[in-house]
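USER: My hope is that you can spare some time for a protein that puzzles me. I am handing you a single protein, as its sequence and its fold in token form. Walk me, if you will, through where the backbone shape changes along the chain. The protein I mean follows directly.
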Amino acid sequence: RRQRQMCIRDSVEKLGGAYKGLLGKLDEAKRYLKMIENDSQNLSEELARVRLLSMTDELTDLPNRRALMRRLEDEMSRSQRYGFHLTLVLIDLDLFKNVNDEYGHAVGDTILTCYAEHILSTFRHHDMVARYGGEEFAVILPNTDLHGAMSALHKVQKEAAATTCHCGDVEIPAPTFSAGVALLHEDDNVESLLKRADDAMYEAKQLGRNQIIVDRQDRLRAQHSSNKTQTRDIN
């Protein structure tokens, strides 16, 4: 009997030791899983940060051209699906090369930053302002017709006229800008909408700069609509 009790006690001690060993391994597994979870979270955060950086212009902190194109595709799909207005604006700073030539690129960079922070911020928070390239900016105006876009751009013009950009001891009045405006049509794709806005912007440059020009097709449509309204009024 005594021998049996000793065998039982030894068995219990062995089971206890095995249980403690199992608990140790479980704790180790939990620590390992926690490490994996933390590493996974850190990786996800890093990927999100890299993705954000890939969609952001380094100088101005505005969305870059890649981000603009993605947003434009989304907004065009939404507008064409539900019949909402959508207006695209391309903005080019006037005589910007002269600033770089006279004052240097550091001052030119300051002006671009000044425009992004103090002038183009005049647009609504749900409008998308992006750096399109060089001294060009693009603005997507959801749920906005030509009248609303022109009203917004005139406010931006006034803000530009009242703004002075500072770079160290250098103070320069914010340059004027030339803008091209295009309203989304049913048959538009991204390329055609951008081209119409770009052509209108080029026309603004040709007319002497510091101009806001609506795309020719939209001008003709507006004129045609106005003529029809006048005809109905006469009748």
